[in-house]
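Anyone up for a design puzzle?
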């Protein structure tokens, strides 16, 4: 007699496809129901079903948060109203006057938030460009290190394991934004991170139809504090958006693999064309940045595209092109951006699941037209 496969032994694709299945014992619903109720009856005085008020706990969101924790191989998962609210939730953990070390090349919205916190006198932020600079800056006085890897938009990689060894030696927390690679390609908690954040709007959702964030941790202490902070501040994900994110997660593995396959083929094409000055790709994932020969080509290139959509965001099934200088990173001063390589000739591509032949042809014809 064959042994039954336990859920803990399921492959990742199986776990994703099965999110929410077998959880509704009353009706047997395969698709997780959307529980829109904001309040729940108490059976008797002093008793609870586990759900009292939807900000504190919601059945649909609970299914999602359990799946998020399992996906990152953590014990706690929290679904928030946006990627930035996920980062804000994490920073609720730290007292005033805390000092943080942050990777220099990062999402402009994160920089804007950190700059605002610093301007308000709440926290201090020191930025580093390399592991060597991190070695020199870290000390027991640092509350946490915050990194994106690969970075946004220059696609530089930091060794999470190496950074973790540094943070642990200095009794410092490590926060990793894992939006670009997702847990399919990188699991920071396994590599030593204490906290992982996502803009779930991007790859986790995957369809450019919801705004969401996620925080995961393995620490009981941090998990309890995050739960308290999220319930207190209230930036939870709505039941409907929780359901949309569950639906998106079911195809995450398939989407990530196809997007990565497309990106790797596209990078080969881009590196062979003289119309491109430089290509930035970490050899995994589906985010690519490139520099045209001249920044003056940008308007004509964007206008000539037919399949790629000129828009902010990333990670959806549709391929997008973003101009960081005026979109995602516009709040970083120009002189500062250019000092670390984010110049006005740089574009960021988010590769979707379209036929690769069509994507190559679209970029080829736009490059030719912009060079005329």
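Challenge accepted. My sequence:
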């Amino acid at each position: 007699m064959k042994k039954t496969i336990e859920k803990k032994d399921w492959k990742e694709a199986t776990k994703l496809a099965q999110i929410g299945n077998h959880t509704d014992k009353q009706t047997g619903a395969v698709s997780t129901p959307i529980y829109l109720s904001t309040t729940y009856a108490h059976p008797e005085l002093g008793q609870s079903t586990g759900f009292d008020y939807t900000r504190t706990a919601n059945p649909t969101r609970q299914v999602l948060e359990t799946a998020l924790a399992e996906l990152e191989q953590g014990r706690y998962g929290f679904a928030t109203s946006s990627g930035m609210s996920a980062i804000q939730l994490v920073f609720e953990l730290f007292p005033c006057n805390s000092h943080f070390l942050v990777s220099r090349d990062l999402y402009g919205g994160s920089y804007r938030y950190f700059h605002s916190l610093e301007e308000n006198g709440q926290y201090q932020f020191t930025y580093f460009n390399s592991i060597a600079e991190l070695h020199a800056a870290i000390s027991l006085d640092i509350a946490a290190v915050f990194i994106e890897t690969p970075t946004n938009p220059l696609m530089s990689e930091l060794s999470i394991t190496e950074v973790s060894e540094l943070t642990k030696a200095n009794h410092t927390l490590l926060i990793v934004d894992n939006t670009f690679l997702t847990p399919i390609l990188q699991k920071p908690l396994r590599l030593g991170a204490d906290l992982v954040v996502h803009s779930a709007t991007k790859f986790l959702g995957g369809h450019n139809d919801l705004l969401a964030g996620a925080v995961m941790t393995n620490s009981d202490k941090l998990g309890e504090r995050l739960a308290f902070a999220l319930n207190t501040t209230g930036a939870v994900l709505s039941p409907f958006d929780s359901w949309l994110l569950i639906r998106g997660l079911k195809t995450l593995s398939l989407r990530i693999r196809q997007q990565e396959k497309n990106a790797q083929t596209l990078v080969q094409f881009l590196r062979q064309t003289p119309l491109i000055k430089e290509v930035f790709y970490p050899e995994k994932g589906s985010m690519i940045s490139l520099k045209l020969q001249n920044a003056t080509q940008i308007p004509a290139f964007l206008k000539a595209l037919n399949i790629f959509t000129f828009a902010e965001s990333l990670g959806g099934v549709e391929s997008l092109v973003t101009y960081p200088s005026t979109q995602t990173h516009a709040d970083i001063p120009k002189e500062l951006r250019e000092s670390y390589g984010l110049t006005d000739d740089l574009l960021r591509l988010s590769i979707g699941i379209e036929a690769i032949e069509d994507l190559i042809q679209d970029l080829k014809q736009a490059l030719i037209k912009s060079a005329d």
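A detail worth pointing out: The longest strand covers residues 287-292.
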